[in-house]
Each structure stands twice: as structure tokens, then as C-alpha cells.
């Protein structure tokens, strides 16, 4: 399992540890009770964190106006896993703290787009 102190990447997603969350964010509620989808993969193999809610959520996700940037508040050590049985990205262990999530972009003749994982 991968560990980091300042930044890490999993596929087309970059994670950077930050000191605080920006103002004006909206909490993204999970789609189910067992996991939080941090980013969706075009192949259907999402990047997820287990959503342990006792005594408080292990992780919370927040969104702002830019759809390519989100934020995580990790309340206790939690791993980010790639839901794929083959050619998977190595899991990453997040320590408590706040993190900016950036979807990588690439230039195309039509303009900027999100990198496909």
C-alpha cells in the first residue's frame, strides 16, 4: 500500500495535502452506506474509500464550483482503493487531514478535457 506526506496520484487523480478547506464548499453525500466514490472511472472501476461512520465519518468529501477539483476531510486513517480486479492502481493510505483532489486535464484540438483513466 502506498503512503505519502504531501501528494500522491492514483490514475488520473492527484491528491495534495492542504492546511484547510476553502470557504463555500458543499458536502457530497455518498451514493451508498459502505463507500464514498472519490472519482468515477470511465471504465466503471471507481476510486473509492470505505465509509466507516462510527463514531464519526472516516472521510467526508466536498465540492466547489470547479468540477475538476474536490476536497476530502479524512478523520482517521483510510485507504483509497481502485475497484478493479486486474491492472489496478495500488491502494493509497490517507492519514487524518485535509486534501485537495484534482482530476488531471489534457489539451485536445477541441480544448481542455479531463484525462481518461
Strand content: over 45%
The strand line-up of the biggest sheet is 2-3-11-8-7-4
Low-confidence stretches: none
Order of helices and strands: EEEEEEEEEEEEE
Terminal CA distance: 20 Å
Write down the overall mean pLDDT.
Answer: 82
Tally of extended strands? 13
Helical content stands at under 10%
Rounded to an integer in angstroms, the radius of gyration calculated over CA atoms is 14 Å
Q: How many individual helices?
A: 0
Biggest β-sheet strands, sense, barrel: 6 strands, antiparallel
Overall form: globular
Q: How many distinct folded domains?
A: 1
Describe the structure.
This protein has 117 residues and is mainly beta. It has one domain. Helix content is 0%, strand content 50%. It is built from no helices and 13 strands. The strands form three sheets. The protein has a six-stranded antiparallel β-sheet with strand order 2-3-11-8-7-4, with no helix packed on it. A five-stranded mixed β-sheet has the order 1-10-9-6-5, with no helix packed on it. The two termini are 20 Å apart. The mean pLDDT is 82.
What attributes does this structure have?
five-stranded mixed sheet, mainly beta, 50% strand, 117 residues, six-stranded antiparallel sheet
SSE blueprint and pairings:
Layout: E1 2-3, E2 7-10, E3 13-18, E4 26-28, E5 35-39, E6 47-50, E7 59-63, E8 69-74, E9 78-82, E10 92-94, E11 97-103, E12 105-108, E13 111-114
Parallel strand pairs: 1-10
Antiparallel strand pairs: 2-3, 3-11, 4-7, 5-6, 6-9, 7-8, 8-11, 9-10, 12-13
Amino acid at each position: 500500500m502506498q503512503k505519502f506526506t504531501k501528494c500522491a496520484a492514483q490514475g488520473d487523480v492527484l491528491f495534495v495535502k492542504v492546511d484547510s478547506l476553502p470557504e463555500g464548499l458543499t458536502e457530497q453525500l455518498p451514493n451508498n452506506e459502505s463507500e464514498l466514490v472519490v472519482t468515477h472511472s470511465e471504465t466503471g472501476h471507481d476510486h473509492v474509500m470505505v465509509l466507516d461512520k462510527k463514531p464519526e465519518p472516516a472521510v467526508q468529501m466536498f465540492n466547489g464550483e470547479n468540477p475538476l477539483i474536490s476536497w476530502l476531510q479524512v478523520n482517521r486513517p483510510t485507504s483509497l482503493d481502485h475497484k478493479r480486479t486486474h491492472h489496478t492502481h495500488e491502494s493509497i493510505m490517507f492519514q487524518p487531514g485535509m486534501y485537495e483532489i484534482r482530476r488531471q486535464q489534457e489539451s485536445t484540438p477541441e480544448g481542455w478535457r479531463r484525462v481518461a483513466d
